[in-house]
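TL;DR need structure tokens for one chain.
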Amino acid sequence: MQAIVRLFRRASLICIACLSASAAWSQGGIGTQFAVVESASVHADAIEKSRAEIAVLMQSGAPGVSIAVGVDDELVWAEGFGYANVEHSVPVTPLTKFRVGSVSKTMTSIALGLLYEEGLIDLDAPIQAYLPEFPIKEKGTVTSRLLASHRAGIRHYLPDGSDNLIKDHYDNVIAALEVFDRDPLIAVPGELYSYSSHGYNLLSAVLQRASGTDYLTLMRSRVFGPLRLIETVADHTDFIITDRASAYARRDGSLINAPFVDNSYKWAGGGFLSTPSDLVKFGFGVFNSGILEPATLDLLLSPPLLPTGEIAEQNYGLGWRSFDEAGDWVGHTGGSIGGNTLFMVNPEAQVVVAVVCNLSGCLGANPDLRRIGAYFAPEQGGPMPAKRAQ
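>> reply
TL;DR here they are.
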């Protein structure tokens, strides 16, 4: 038995994770004996329905999955399934840290909001006001607002994915800009929505220079610390990080160790580790702690208009996207080498759902996974299935 205590402002839920050590592993899939949380809850029916959604992932061959759900500022469920490390039969528990991929962008947006409120960032100033060494682009002016909303024209990963598999270590986010800083823009800034992790890497350099604080220090001191995200850390390859899940991929249908990557080139674009319980805490913290003014939150959540006067189909604000037409559910998905994440918040219903897996593209095995939100907030309805997870 392993016990984990997670406290929110009004929460004192104790989650006890019990694992059967006999759960069998084969190249074809994982056994049906998962880590189990047993705790009395008025959400028992929602939890059982949600377990069935997670079972779809496990039956498809996911090595390990972890989920946490919060309701009314309280953690009501946290559970691990399968293995954090297959070779050593290390079980997933609510303490297991996973690569959360692009949910790192949502976390970065909070730092952007803080500097904006303090007048340290002009969202519409050319980024050269903060990074004069960044090359001026022929197609137009790149700004922080455009970077945060994926409209700056900065390219995403190369078609062959080679710059998503970088092994070099960067000690500074500004030095890491060499990966793409000489490349031309793919579109006139502001003209269209084009998702770009490199755009967020550039944004992190702007935040570092504007604040006068190293980016990772800025995130720890201004975001993770105040929101008490004690399990959320940068994915340093050379650090000993307790409870870090091993990363997996597939080759010819078989599970393999994911390729080695050093995510220091893209902390803001997708380089953090976290637990679902910490992501639940993050969701409630953003909307309930007062870390940002309501007007700033509205700014982050509101998708900007394109030159056509329309909102891009992706409903993407500044680091946050809407999962449904009404905008009830907001958050982000995350895809990384050896990781996949769903993070969704319904501020009105006061529900947060976070699901993570240690296999590339894992969550795509259940296109209805977002129905979990509806199980815990039935009056609000559930978010529509995703067209594509980042």
